[in-house]
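subagent[fold] <- orchestrator: predict structure for attached chain, return tokens only, no commentary.
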Amino acid sequence: MEFADIHNTSYLFEYVSVLLFIAVAFGIIILAVVSSLLIVPQKPYSNKLSPYECGMEAFEDARKQFDIRFYLIAVLFIIFDLEIIFMYPWALSFLQLSTYGFLSMIIFTGFLGISFIYEWKKGALQ
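subagent[fold] -> orchestrator:
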């Protein structure tokens, strides 16, 4: 590759579609913000501006111990939302996997089943 080939402007034309996509995206964002300011009336009132969390006013010490159900719901999220992501690549390459790949996924789903039973026994699904 010569020095003159690097400065050729034909390389820049490969990025025109990316720049066009970014320009359209920013245009849609600006259009959405401006239209929401024009269409929706902006009349804040005291309840709308008050601080809230979970729909209730804070009335106790923030260092109070949480109920165990909050932690169980977090564990449920990790188990059934994040761990399921590992099944997608396995399903895509299922035909190329050997018996070891199949058995490893059986063990993995077994652990998911055990954790589901644990959550069920603790009453987190109620």
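orchestrator: received. Logging for downstream: The radius of gyration is 27 Å. The helical segments are 3-6, 16-39, 46-49, 68-82, 87-92, 99-122.
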